[in-house]
Fold this sequence. Notes:
By secondary structure, this protein is an alpha/beta fold. It has helices at residues 24-27, 56-63, 100-110, 135-142, 159-164, 181-192, 203-207, 240-258, 260-269, and strands spanning 37-43, 67-73, 86-87, 97-98, 123-132, 146-150, 168-171, 225-226, 229-230.
Amino acid sequence: MSEPIPPPKPKSHGRLSxxxxxxxRDLMAPQRVKGAWCAKIVTLFPDxxxxxxxxxxxxxxxxxxxxxxxxxxLRAFGEGRHRNVDDTPAGGGAGMVLRAxxxxxxxDQAMQGAPRDRxxxxxxxxxxxxxxxxQAKAHEWAAxxxxxxxxxxxxxxxxxxxxxxxxxxVSLGDFVMTGGEIAAQAMIDATVRxxxxxxxxxxxxxxxxxxxxxxxxPQFTKPPVWxxxxxxxxxxxxxxxxxxxxxxxxxxxxTAARRPDLWxxxxxxxxxxxxxxxx
Length: 279
Ligand code: SAH
């Protein structure tokens, strides 16, 4: 006994459009630059957004219309009077699984007007079973036109909808959370800061951790002496060649000590006898 699904909310088109959700931010009528990168999030908890994405640089960039966020409430697509979205796992076992038909209806609404080519607009299921999220993935997504993220809850989602929609499974790391919402925010944050104009200083994304396969060197600022601890004198020397050398050595030592996996990959890219990675 399923009830009719509410029709999609009307959307305005044009160079600038008003977001359809009713977060306080949206009531301030943020303006979206046409064609701006957009994250569409299918979730049982739309109130979790924009969360930290509404703060600081990502929040300002959203206000400026450099990127946009839309939530699609999975509950609205549920079955029956109670809008059920989940059921018991086939084959038995603990917990509940999100239904393929319910998730599919929400995804269909989310993908209205988005390109079908998954390279231009990936659909992602946040999942501890997915490939680990990386800086390279953030770059790939930032170069797309947008992204649809499906946040799981309970034991996850019926496999058939993942297969049928060509959904990519991506993990935030080797641990299990109760839902995909925090993972979605983390990945959107990492992606949005690579969109031109979001960070004041794009150079900082070229020098930071992972950009050349190494972790970043330690950072210091004023005061020059704090509780008896000095800033490494080379950093105050004004000698840019020596500073670069020191930073490089620190980055290499940190990477070798903390991330043998990254260090081995970095070493493998070095031409024997050279210190610069091969292009
Ligand atoms: N039974 C699943 C875990 C379900 S956790 C398993 O063993 O693989 C519930 C939901 O939280 C998942 O569907 C996923 O959307 C989200 N989630 C939990 N941990 C995550 C992680 N490390 N990365 C991304 N999403 C995660």
